[in-house]
Fold these 3 entries.
Entry 1:
Amino acid sequence: MRIVSIKDGLQVWADAKLNFFLEISGKRSDGYHELTTFMVPVQIQDVLDFRCDQSGKVNLWCDSRELSTGPDNLVIRAARLMQEETRKSIGVDIRLYKRIPWQAGLGGGSSDAAATLLALNSLWNLNLSHQALGEKAAKLGSDVPFFLAGKAAWCHGRGEKTLPSDWQCGLSILVIKPVFGLSTASVYSRLKIPISPMKQEAASNCFSGSSLEELNEVLFNRLQAPAFEMEPDLALLFEEFKKAGAKKPILCGSGSAIFALFENDERALETARSLWNGASRNLIKNTFITKQAKFSSNHQGEML
């Protein structure tokens, strides 16, 4: 995540995320699922501009007509939470330029919410600690705390308990977003809890290096099977992805986006071209060739 100064305000580039490992071990008493996931921020980014509004109003404009800008939007909820819990009378005018596809499992809404917390903490001179921001983030959504750290992390509980990692993946990543989205709740409703869940330890050692072979060995998503069951065209696109050159495509989150790792951008581009020229081209809406987002320790200025 990158924050820069603009005229009369701040601009934030909010990263998407990919789940390199996602296991579900049970259902919690609060209705959520107990999970273990290794999430990685990537350079597919929404852009948000923040400027103070002296009237006290929270205003959100978005360049995508698909997205609600009402009180249900996580950006609005994050801003109002900051207002209420810090008793700030000042408001904010937010402009959201949407580049992260929604209903894709890429965490765009959660990332935008985290961007709002970070931006308002600075814009309103609140000086809240990372821990205080993390507590607010957990109230907004399970993935929101992850995006505050701006780096890869193991996440536990319902996803809100994070253990950041300095691991960096130098590989190129091809992300495919189908023409359809998937409802997270609907995918989880089809999930069969495994009797013997995969252990984090089985994957942890492979996330200390970054070779393509090692990582392909441990890429895993428990939600992939129920997502394929819910949307057969996703399974079809997955198989076409493999035929086009992806060694191990994997679903991201609850989908509908799928991704694969490549040695370099050229190999990723070759696979993308093959997909676009193949039988499944009508199923593809967006294609991204990206890399892991680099970490900036102060979330300020250009990324390192």
Entry 2:
Amino acid sequence: MTNFLVKRFIKNFDKTEDIKIREKYGMLSSAVGVVCNIFLFALKYIMGTISNSISVISDAFNNLSDCASCIVTLFGYKLAAKPADKDHPFGHGRMEYLTSLSIAVVIIVVGLELLKDSVLKIMHPEQVNFSIIVLISLVISVAVKLWMSLFNTKLGNRINSTVMLATAKDSKSDVLATVAVIIALIASLFTDLPVDGAMGVIVSAFVLKSGYDIVRDTVDELLGKPADQQIIDNINNLIKENVKIIGIHDMLIHNYGPGNMIGSCHVEVRSDEDFTQIHDIVDGIERRIHKELNILMTIHMDPIEVDNEQVNHCKDKVRTIIKSLDERLHIHDFRLVTGESHTNVIFDLVVPYDCQYTDEQLKSFIDNGLEAEDTDYYTVITFDREF
């Protein structure tokens, strides 16, 4: 069904990096969500009224909030598809993240209201009228929500959309919530205890948890979490395909919304290479990364000595010292500058955020390790973090 709808309503559906195609995916997801959730709201509200069940009615309004979320999402995709302008030179892609945040706020507000009503129902219980028709309607609701979760997961993975994946997660929570309502409805046949209100509280908890998860994931994107490791690996593989590139470091990836990334890195090349030729090679790599990964990449060249025995010996010594401290430590931009009284050992040391040693301790360990060398070395270290 998912593939049928995509092929039926989205022309050139395979061009998922195109912002206009992403907009069409978003409109399809939102339209399907609106139709399904309006149907479920009407069905559950009628059945909840018939059965006098607060948990069923709560579940109905949960679906109504999902419908509102779909409408918000629809506008979010329209805004995110706006082209770059002088005030927003990197486009409007991050509007998807703000849309996810708006969805989460709506979900949390509805969850709090449902929680209040459910607690009141526990304090002042009312008789729930069991009906097989109501039970069947809830089972239908579970089936619809399972399909919606699968539908949005497929679309979200296809275009790398946090909004759709958040919607899919919300649908999964709805399934659990409706199962709780079914339990309450069946329990009404066997007990006068306020099971309906208790299950209403559980439904509210699912709703609030769903909202919290979306807030957490979206805030991570807005604050600037590290790029996906698969993206980093793809960039590294494309760069390393050229034999002229010896190493890569200082890679930065900035996310301006799905499908809109800007990056930079340094590549190490032999210092005796023809730099006119190397410049052309690097330009070609930048163009290829943009074409294949849709990432606007800027690459800086760092010349390094590879045939200098003293440089290589000192570099190996430093590597041995740091690996004995923490296997994750590594260096780049290594060079020696010889003076009259001493030789400067200049390099960048990449340190994990959770390294147990301070920068001062690391420098002290390296200095002590180099004291046994014949040359009077003085370390000049730039401490880096991996982004």
Entry 3:
Amino acid sequence: MSNVKKSIFIVAVEPSGDRLGAELIDELKPNDHVELSGIGGAAMARAGISNDYDISPLAILGFTEALKAYPKVITKVREAVDMIMDAGPDAVVLIDSWGFMIRVSKLLKRRGFAGKIIKYVAPQVWAMREGRARILARHVDHLLSIHSFDAPYFTKHGLPVTFVGNPMFDDGFTPSNKTDFKTRHNIKADSRILAVLFGSRPAEIERLMDPFLETVSRLSDMYPDLIMASPLSDGVRDMVLSHVEKDERLKKLNLLPEAEKYDLFSSADVAMACSGTVTTQLAVMGVPTVVAYKLSPVTFFFARRLFKPDYISLVNISADKLLMPEFMQGDVRADVLRDAVSQYLDDDELRIISSQALVQQAAIMKGKGGSASAKAASAILKILN
């Protein structure tokens, strides 16, 4: 990059985007030829970018809430564009938040913004609404994608794409030694361990608790020495613990604080998990996993018609094959889940092959060349140069 300073304006309006923005700022700050400004939340403020723009009204959780908040969203879009135009940056980086950011980019184009518009995190057009790829290509100059399979959906519309890797892999989780975990919990060295992951949302707990606990009960009868443990996030811990006294099946589980999650994964022989981010974390750790998910009947009716991939787990979608067995809706039954878990417990060779395949696929998803934020920062500087 030349000695002339380049200015970059970073926009993030949701907590996950705010964290990504902060990580990106940390990577860009050491560069003496870059000036940073932006809109974000607490994480970006701690990283050194703060102003009076309030992102809290934009943390919209559902369709109904989005409709009610629409006038406020439009007002906040205009405020954001005013701030960007006043700053006159060489590039603006719009992080995630499809609905808000596409409105910002459209208005910037209409108002003659002369800098580069860079979108960080693509809309999930591989899952549904592929038309968004064409819309994005018309209104931004470059896309930084977090999935290795994103690019073809956008490049065919003329949008340059740089794959930077999934930031999820940059959490730096470093599991303990398997022996340490077992010693800490008085578990025999040769004992096998099943990790049980109910999910991180109350609705997931409600739908999966009964079939998961019944599976746990049946596995306990089949494998008396099997250790079964479940790490609970703060958001659902009280909900799960409230069932302990009235459901004897829960007493077959060792309930752990979330802080022990990765240590558990390092020792687990197999896992039974709600579909979500945790399945990718399990893949990183090479834990063969049986995946389950249940939606309300109405939501499932529409999802089945809109959702394009053949699989629900990101690992399987990325690999385009079933590295983790998946079960949905009526198939989420104790007899089905028990049999799927038992295959891994009874077949050492299958467990080893599955573990190796998961680790290899996770490495592909992470990408090469350092953290996602470091690669995103490098890509932005190249675009500016």
